[in-house]
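Retry 2 of 3 after timeout on previous attempt. Resubmitting structure tokens to design endpoint.
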């Protein structure tokens, strides 16, 4: 398991557009379909990564809680399913239904959406404001599978609370850490 951090780029860029299939409904969804009135959380996750498994229930809890507060959420898996079959769309659907995901779970087969978002790891979390401008690229909280810190989502919750209250999100952000996105051979991004 490669410990890969979020690739740090300057904040303030506009959310890249996408049109991807939702593994549960079978419908294609765009950024406009998932965006929230107060902001939007775009998460790159997958089924098998121990870092994602470790925080999955908290991601779901935050999704449920903050959707009620006007935030949109979407989870995207971009992993190579040939070499990582546990991340196939069929397995994604099984997980989303078993866990009761309160947000769509989209499959990025080409991996182009992950590249557009400069995603590097799972979980890789970006938060966009109501104008679709990135204000956060960071961790859920300090918890990792290898430590005893609580999985409480404090960093992401703090950002969403600030946004809900119309306050500025601090620029000092700790990157997420997780497994690297499983790129298809020959499709690795140049930003590593």
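Retry 2 succeeded. Sequence:
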């Amino acid at each position: 398991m490669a410990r890969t951090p979020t690739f740090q780029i300057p904040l303030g860029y506009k959310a890249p557009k996408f049109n991807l299939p939702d593994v549960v409904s079978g419908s294609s969804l765009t950024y406009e379909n998932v965006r929230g009135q107060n902001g939007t959380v775009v998460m790159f996750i997958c089924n098998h990564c121990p870092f994602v498994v470790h925080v999955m229930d908290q991601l779901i809890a935050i999704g449920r809680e903050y959707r009620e507060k006007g935030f949109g959420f979407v989870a995207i898996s971009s992993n190579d399913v040939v070499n990582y079959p546990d991340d196939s769309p069929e397995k994604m659907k099984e997980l989303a239904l078993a866990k009761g995901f309160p947000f769509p779970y989209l499959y990025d087969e080409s991996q182009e959406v992950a590249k557009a978002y400069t995603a590097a790891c799972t979980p890789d979390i970006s938060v966009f404001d109501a104008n679709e401008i990135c204000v956060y690229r960071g961790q859920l909280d300090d918890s990792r599978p290898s430590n005893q810190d609580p999985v409480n989502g404090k960093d992401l919750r703090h950002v969403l609370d600030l946004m809900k209250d119309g306050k500025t999100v601090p620029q000092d952000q700790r990157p997420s850490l997780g497994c690297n996105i499983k790129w298809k051979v020959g499709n690795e991004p140049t930003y590593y």
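Attempt log closed. The beta strands are 4-5, 19-21, 28-30, 39-44, 71-77, 105-107, 121-122, 124-128, 134-138, 177-180.
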